[in-house]
Design brief:
By secondary structure, the protein is mostly helical. The protein has one domain.
Length: about 100
C-alpha cells in the first residue's frame, strides 16, 4: 500500500473516531454527562467495534448485536435493541452522509 494512501486512511479513521465519540457521548446511555460533563472517554471502548462494523458494511441488525455484546462485556449492562435503535440510526445517518 502506498504510504500516501495509508496516511489518508489513518486521517480518515481519526476523523471518523472523533465524530463517532461525539455521537456516543450525546447518546450517553450511562448518564455520565449528567454526573460529570468533563468525562468524554467513557465510550471509547465502542469506537472500534462500531467503526469495524461500518467499514465492513454490517447491517443495522449486525451492528445492534455487536454493540449490545460490547456493552455487556465492557460495562456489565444488558441493553435492548429498542434502546440501541436511536444510536444506530444516528450512526448510520452520519455514516451515509459524511464527506
Amino acid at each position: 500500500m502506498d504510504s500516501q494512501i495509508k496516511h489518508q486512511r489513518i486521517l480518515n479513521h481519526k476523523k471518523d473516531s472523533d465524530y463517532l465519540i461525539k455521537i456516543l457521548n450525546e447518546w450517553d446511555f450511562l448518564g455520565i454527562s449528567r454526573i460529570n460533563p468533563e468525562i468524554n472517554n467513557e465510550y471509547n471502548c465502542l469506537l472500534d467495534p462500531i467503526l469495524n462494523s461500518l467499514y465492513s458494511q454490517a447491517t443495522k441488525e449486525e451492528m445492534n448485536n455487536i454493540i449490545s455484546l460490547s456493552i455487556s462485556n465492557h460495562f456489565g449492562v444488558m441493553i435492548t435493541s429498542k434502546e440501541l435503535n436511536p444510536l444506530i440510526e444516528k450512526v448510520y445517518g452520519w455514516w451515509n452522509n459524511r464527506n
